[in-house]
Amino acid sequence: MRRVASLVFPGFELLDLFGPLQFLGMLSDMFEVVTVAENRGPVPSNQGVSVNSVRTLAEGDDYDLLLVPGGRGTRSGVGNQALLNWVAQAAGNAEVVMTVCTGSALLAKTGFLDGKRATSNKLAFGWVQQQGPEVEWVKRARWVEDGKAFTSSGVSVGMDMTLAVIARLRGRETAEQVAVWSEYEWHDDPSWDPFAGLYPD
Amino acid sequence: MRRVASLVFPGFELLDLFGPLQFLGMLSDMFEVVTVAENRGPVPSNQGVSVNSVRTLAEGDDYDLLLVPGGRGTRSGVGNQALLNWVAQAAGNAEVVMTVCTGSALLAKTGFLDGKRATSNKLAFGWVQQQGPEVEWVKRARWVEDGKAFTSSGVSVGMDMTLAVIARLRGRETAEQVAVWSEYEWHDDPSWDPFAGLYPD
């Protein structure tokens, strides 16, 4: 059984969080998902609907997997030292670290991605790059794996990346099974990226 | 501005709800999303994480759009007369009614889908059919539109269906824009369904 910490903060993007949690949550014999935030209780998403955090940052940073979503809230997040300290510790402790969309900005800001390959949302790519000048940013990629770091492009792509994480931890057949249960067509090629070309470099 | 009522109940499926709400929520000048449940406050999903309902069934059933997710909770939901009464009223009042996965079982149980074409999750199709014997169930379909009723297949398919709803209400270009913002490849053909064939009739 692996414990998954899902960081949540005001202004997180709904699908960044719940796409991955749907797929991990379908394997309830393998993953236990815990929402973690600065305070326990309701945390409003960028779309208004709020989710509940059940654990605080202060209550620990030792999880098997770490999931960092993106969203408008990352803009203030990169200036929140308590949050960044927790992300740095939790990323160090985890077996697998996942970011979706601008969640990679938070992870990059801690220095954890320095010297590693990573990607992010194509719409906010320039701003994300500024948060980690020592990161080897890959613009054309649906997601990027480098060691234990999995970073994905925008909003919906966290789902494809999560299936790749499941494939690594439990085999490709299980990942494909989860996709079928969800009637989801897995884009399993991390280099397939028709969206990168839509924005100027 | 259109008000969207998202029904939530214990044991709803995360992505059934949050895929559609991500896309509708990105058009915040057009849609206002409200979570509705029997009681106000935390409602646990099938995956454990809880969302907050901000309105109760008793507080009204007059919304422009209605979204009914699926999940394990629909199994007891079809026996909950107060819930079914609200779904029947809200569906009658709405301009567009959307179900994802086994959410169509709840809608079918009210009689609202009688004589209409509809679909559901392929894994639970037999059980869903039993909830609405007068419905014209379509097994091979990613989603089905019949008048104001949009019913979709399992878990991830609510996203494709929601883009079709956006296309109807605000034009195809807007739906395509939302897909690009999310780096999502829209399966825009409702008859594309590689999953229906995986299960016996």
Automatic annotation (TrEMBL), chains A, B:
Residues 2-167 form the DJ-1/PfpI domain. It comes from the Bacteria. This is DJ-1/PfpI family protein. Pfam families: DJ-1_PfpI (PF01965).
